[in-house]
Structure formats: structure tokens, C-alpha cells
Amino acid sequence: xxxxxxxxxxxxxxxxGALELLLTVARVxxxxxxxxxxxxxxxxxxxxxxxxxxxxxxxxxDRSPRGSTLTAEGALVTDWARRVVEAAEAxxxxxxxxxxxxxxxxxxxxxxxxxxYLLPGWLIxxxxxxxxxxxxxxxxNSADVAQRVLAHEADLGFVEGPAVPDGLDSAVIAQDxxxxxxxxxxxxxxxxxxxEPAELAAAALILRERGSGTRQVLDAxxxxxxGLAQPLLELASTTAxxxxxxxxxxPCVLSELAxxxxxxxxxxxxxxxxxxxxxxxxxxxxxxxxxxxxxxRDLLSLxxxxx
Length: 307
What we know:
alpha/beta
């Protein structure tokens, strides 16, 4: 008995498909009929019954030209099989309910740039594929997004920093670059050449707050030049940063996605930066060891199709 109990249950008990076959044989009175009902060949059905008899060590079905009948042992096993199959059906119904609850909502956390300039189009496309899914969006800086995903307060996150935070897996969903921009009246707007990293690092800039992906990328790019000087302004809103720069307060550094309208209308002028890499990858993130599922998986797929 001890040796048998040391063998995993899955190796001692027939699989669910075999039990369903036995129940169908009992119901239709024919092995060939049961095979047709389940969409398998008769040889496959016979082989499955024989394998089950070998595993259990008893004969389950008497076969004759007139059909198939259960042995006394087969009738007893069929009663047990019915309870197992009913339990499996209840398990399946519960799993479907869980999937339905999961698929009825999607919690997204995204950095400000992605939330404002990329996510709206992705979410409109997702609604076309999943009209019954309610989506909630939290917009914050990249550090805040990472914390929410790690705390399982978001099903999928989008960040724009230079590195993936610990505890998260990621996929690149777009490429971006930071742009230095000034009002047309600023002295940098009239330069025939751009600014060097050291000059940019020493300037009083209008920046996003610490923890934002924009700030992280800029800090990393200018670290070899001594790092950023004290900012002129630190603002938590992309709109506020642009507004301050348009007013002539000083240079700003933002994603090119955020500056399309201002640069096109000449309310701001791009200032080239020589010798510093201001490119960055935009990433979707989720907890390490998991994979996005349901609506989160579909949203991730949409971002890649539209990148």
C-alpha cells in the first residue's frame, strides 16, 4: 500500500477522457457508438478502454457482436467516474466564471506621455475587439506605474524609463526620443548649431519631476557631463512643462510625441543636442514570472501591431 501511495495520483487514476468514454459506452451500449459520439476512431476507443482496464487491474467492458455491456466492476467504476466527471464539469464552470470576471475589466497604468499620446488609440482599438471590457486607466510617472504593477493594482503597465524595474518583465512597444525645445525668442532658437551635453546639463531647464521616465532618461544621458543642474522648474504635468516653455521661461525637455503641435505651429523650436543619446524605448511591463492574459494580452498585441 505504501508503494502505491508513493506513485502520483495521475499515474494511478484514469484520465478524464477515458472516464468520459466509459460513461458514454454505458449510455449508448456500444463502443463504436461511443467513439462516434466523442469524435474518435473505434480502434482509439478500444485502446483507451484496454489501457484503463490494465491500469485498474479489472475488466470493465464485455464486447460482443450485439454491442458492449459493462461488467459488474465496470458498473461500479462507472458510478465513481460519473462523480469525477461531474466534479470536473463544476471545476470547468468555475474556471469559466473566473475568466469571465477577469475579461470583464482591465486595469492599465501608464506613464504620462504614453497615457496622453499613445494609449487613446490603443484603447479605442481594444474596445472594437472587446466591447464588453471595462477599462480603468491610471496615469502617473514611470516609477508610480512600476509600483502599481508590482502591487497587482494594474494588469498591465507602460513605462518610458531607460531600464526595466526589478520584478518586472517587459516588451518594447515603441521607440521615442527626447527633444529640447525653446520659445522662438530664446537665444538657443537662433543658433546655427545645437547645444553640447555639458551646456545642456548646466542650463536651468523646465523638467518633469523625478521618477518620470523623461527625467530618468535625461539624467542617464547627461550623467557623463556632470549631471543636471538645479532645474528652473520641476512640474508633474507635460502640459504644464510645455506651457512654461511657450511662455519663454526657459528650455524644456520632453518626448517628441508631446511636442508635435507646438513644433509644427512654431510656438516652440527644437534645439539639436550633439553628443548625447536622447533616444529611448517605451515598454509594456508586467510581474516577472507571469504573462499578460485576457484583455491585457489583447492590448499588448494591439500595441505591437500599431508600433
